[in-house]
Amino acid sequence: MDNYDVVVLGGGPAGLAAALASNECGGKTLIIEREKLLGGILKQCIHDGFGLIRFKEKLSGPEYSGRYIDMVLEKDIDVETSTFVTEIKKQGEEFLITIVNSKYGVKKIKAKAIVLANGCRERTWRQVFIQGTRPAGIYTAGTAQYFVNMMGYLPFKKCVVLGSGDIGLIMARRLTLEGCTVEGVYEAKSTPSGLSRNIAQCLDDFSIPLHLSHTVTRVFGDDRLNAVEISKVDEKMIPIPGTEKIVECDGLVLSVGLIPENEIAESLNIKIDRKTKGPFVDQNLMTGLEGVFSCGNALHVNDLVDYVSESGEIAGENAAKYAKEHKDRKLIRMNADSKFLYAVPQYIDINSLNQKVIAYFRSRDIRDKMTVKLLYDGQVIFSRKYNKLKPPEMERITFDISKLNLKDNGEINIVMEG
Amino acid sequence: MKSLNKIKSAINKNVNGEVYLKEWHKSIILEGKVKSWDDFIKAGQIAANKGYKGVVNNMEVEGFKSPPIKAPSIKDGTLDGKKVDVLVIGGGVTGCSILRELSKWDISCLLVDKEEDVAMHASSRNDGMVHPGIEPKPGSNKARFNVEGNRLYTQIAKELDVPLNRTGSLVLFDKKILKAAFPIVDARRKKNGLDKIKLVSQSEIKKYEPYADDNVGGALFFPSTAITCPYKMTVAYGENAVMNGAEISLNTIVLSIHKEEDKIVYVETNRGKIFPKVVIDAAGCFADVIADMAGDKFFSIHPRKGEILILDKKKGRLLHSVLAKPSLTIVKGNTKGGGIVKTVDGNILVGPDAYEQPLREDFSTHMENINAIANKHFPILPGINKGDIITYFAGVRAATYEEDFIVEKSEYVENLVYAAGIQSPGFASAPAISREIERITIDVLSKMMKVKKKENFNPYRKGIPDLSLMNENDRSELIKKRPDYGVIVCRCEEISKGEIIDAINSPIPTRTIDGIKRRVRPGMGRCQGGFCMPQVLNIISKEKGIDPTKVTKKGEGSNILVSETKQSK
Lengths: 418, 569
Ligand SMILES: Cc1cc2nc3c(=O)[nH]c(=O)nc-3n(C[C@H](O)[C@H](O)[C@H](O)COP(=O)(O)OP(=O)(O)OC[C@H]3O[C@@H](n4cnc5c(N)ncnc54)[C@H](O)[C@@H]3O)c2cc1C
Ligand SMILES: Cc1cc2nc3c(=O)[nH]c(=O)nc-3n(C[C@H](O)[C@H](O)[C@H](O)COP(=O)(O)OP(=O)(O)OC[C@H]3O[C@@H](n4cnc5c(N)ncnc54)[C@H](O)[C@@H]3O)c2cc1C
Fold this sequence. Notes:
The structure holds two protein chains of two kinds.
Chain A: E1 2-9, H1 13-24, E2 29-32, E3 48-50, E4 59-60, H2 61-74, E5 78-80, E6 84-91, E7 94-101, E8 105-116, E9 120-122, E10 131-132, E11 138-140, H3 141-151, E12 153-154, E13 158-162, H4 166-177, E14 181-187, H5 196-203, E15 210-212, E16 214-220, E17 227-232, E18 245-248, E19 251-254, E20 258-260, H6 263-267, E21 292-294, H7 305-324, E22 331-336, E23 340-344, E24 347-349, E25 356-363, E26 367-376, E27 379-389, E28 395-400, E29 411-417
Parallel strand pairs in A: 1-2, 1-8, 2-5, 8-21, 10-16, 11-19, 13-14, 13-19, 14-15, 22-29
Antiparallel strand pairs in A: 3-4, 6-7, 7-8, 9-20, 16-17, 17-18, 22-24, 23-25, 25-28, 26-27, 26-29
Chain B: H1 4-14, E1 17-24, E2 27-34, H2 37-47, E3 55-57, E4 60-61, E5 82-89, H3 93-102, E6 109-112, E7 129-130, H4 141-160, E8 164-165, E9 169-173, H5 175-192, E10 198-201, H6 205-208, E11 218-222, E12 226-228, H7 230-243, E13 247-249, E14 254-260, E15 263-269, E16 272-281, H8 287-293, E17 301-311, E18 322-324, E19 339-342, E20 348-351, E21 355-356, H9 367-377, E22 389-400, E23 406-409, E24 416-420, H10 426-446, H11 472-481, E25 488-490, E26 495-496, H12 497-504, H13 513-520, H14 533-544, E27 563-564
Parallel strand pairs in B: 2-3, 2-4, 5-6, 5-16, 6-13, 9-18, 16-24
Antiparallel strand pairs in B: 1-2, 7-12, 8-12, 9-11, 10-11, 14-15, 15-16, 17-20, 17-21, 17-22, 18-19, 19-20, 23-24, 25-26
Helix pairs in contact in B: 1-2, 3-7, 3-10, 4-10, 12-13, 12-14
The complex binds flavin-adenine dinucleotide (FAD) (2 copies).
């Protein structure tokens, strides 16, 4: 049986960064990736815009992940691709991982620590309750992207995009460039979900209309999609009867949200935060289960890969440290108030040597001129002014807890004030 | 037998429109024109079970024109002039099970279905529940074949290597009803010949289903209820038939039937004329259309639709068997109103509902029905909620006005046999219906030729191995032999490339995304194929040597892709 200090599940940008950091800290590291190639979702993101923070350059997805893959391959990091994890069990202090691949059949691997970097999956048209027939021609943006960018095939001639998430916007442009007519992008919310730069560069530049407060309620066509029904929605995003209109098209692209993949975490009974849909973690990105770390889109959905890599590094470094030695944690809560969609981490380990906390949050609504404060025991321990906060744009803050003398019965509250 | 005049006045009193009645071949024919589909159904129901053989509803409905049957566009002569001993029309569970039972005999059998695959209609669009047989009226065909089919399924599932769980089912009752219900149900149980049922007290409910809502009076437990996978079972029946020499021709639609005297001589299809000695009508919702082609329409099918929700496997642990709570208002003619079922694959199904509508091939779903199903059934298993729904689907039941199965030889056409009106519990009844049809067919055939059993009939069919269920050593061994079994393509359901290739090359080969899904499940999990569908498409394209743009979801016209991109051109 092979023994590792750290086993990283997932070879996307989060997993690659985690493996590098773990290796850097002297951890014997293995990456397990179920696809043939490393790189995760970036393999198919051939547009540019990656790495502005990290490399101060505009890279394409494959260029960005390529840099990390090269670094990984230079280091003494083991990689198993086309390998599927069927089970993980905690045995005493260690983890027993069962993998399946063509090379070994079924094989067991031991690890002292695990980094979950599984990324996320897309919500489907059924999960947003679109009704009607079941024709071909309805795909999530990621699937459509795979067809176009990885396989070189067009899935539609004329399509409607539902959801103004970034992938949807990018696909609207990509499909247009490939000669497909994009009739419009429809969004149930009254504000777009994607980054402003993507609205400008993907829709405005190509005169693709964006219809806010609209959704697709029904699809038509027995074999291949031939039309969709669009309805206006009210503030609660409920379709308003009588507002239906029919748009003829042979394609529907769904960009209606990403869901962190945490089936493995759940199988280990790791508690999941309903707000992030990722595990609860402390500032070391350790989950509720000692020795298991989470990062990247598996932890919460990121819009910038630079932060994904950063979270991978935090998780990888701390996993390697944990594998070497660890003491008991003392966790206190970090609570974000209801003006936030969420904040990560949700806990601070006051026993940890890592006293520099990196936190990410998203505002629930669009708000101007806000101050975000961290309160401990009635005292303001951090404060920052924001001109504008928007749900699509994740914010990052750092703060130092070394001088705060945090007590195990205390808690940190994150508040937003106008 | 009630007089036609009396029936006519009852109808005209209750429905909007002008209705005329006549008697033909001992059946009632309804003609005229009514206002709405409800009126159309009501008229048929009033005329039913008045001592005539059947009700044929040929009325028009104002403003409604029945769409033509969906037909494959392909036209060739591959079957032209083909002579067979038996022709089975329809590749649902009824047709496929009949084909399998007939393949025991040393005769030539051909099954045709108009779709790209078997099990494309009702047989893949149901709950997969093998009912105990308590609901059907004592003495009905339904009661007989349901109870018998239920018993036969253990053996059939073993022979055909299809998973079947005999979990029993728990029916919850409010306190007031329970006391009254038990003696009635128990009396019917005895009449229908079922095994003992158990009265479960409120405090015992959790022993059967720990997560069920036990805020009720109690429950009845039916031990013989079983669950299996309806499309896998249909495919398995078909495959075993093919292994034993029977033939299946898909994308083949029956267009007309030509008789001389009272005997069918040939059956016209889009692939040519077939000359069968005996024809079996197992055409589901189109069984009456086939009967009409043979000049023998003594019944009508009125399509009764139902929708079903599928929940994530994650919630599978909350349920062990089948759970239902009948509502007080049982709508006449409709099933008891569905419930919650744990499938053999670990998902939870909720539904179905049942409603009359005019379309025989409309498998669309509707928000109000999805909501109604959720609102009705979710409360009996409090751990589930709408966020657990991964998808939903619809099916259409082939109901007759008599609300019973028609399993018999035609009275007027010498060589035509019916397995018609096979609505719920038609899936549960298939093993028994098929044996009865086998008996009838062999009887008819024996008058025309010498018929004997095959010496080498093999009742056993081995399914595609499900590697995720194997022990580790066996799995490793198999992967060593076929490395493709080690390449996981579908992450949610843990399906390997090897299993997908096996499905493509199985005895009833398939080359569609849905065909593979029905056989080995890739794309049936929570991501609904988001990740694996392009891979499955690539595997099909490679294995079959067809261009990716030619790969379809479910047959002709449902191509996944439209063209190459500019760049790859
Ligand atoms: C279409 C699209 C456009 C984007 N555009 C931009 C942009 O312009 N700029 C930017 O900065 N960011 C962008 N992003 C965001 C960012 O790049 C992603 O959020 C980031 O790639 C997430 O990285 P990850 O490693 O967490 O997940 P992923 O890249 O999804 O990687 C996860 C990997 O884990 C593997 N895996 C999962 N489970 C297992 C398991 N059990 N065993 C083994 N392997 C497993 C998967 O196969 C996958 O390879 C975009 C994202 C998308 C999807
Ligand atoms: C929502 C729902 C839930 C149900 N739940 C259950 C359950 O839990 N248990 C149970 O026992 N039963 C259940 N049923 C009933 C069960 O599904 C059916 O009784 C059974 O599947 C009928 O099988 P069949 O082979 O007779 O018909 P089908 O499966 O409909 O097959 C008929 C076939 O005939 C073909 N055909 C028609 N016309 C032609 C033509 N002209 N030429 C060539 N081919 C033709 C069609 O293409 C079709 O494939 C349910 C039904 C529904 C709709």
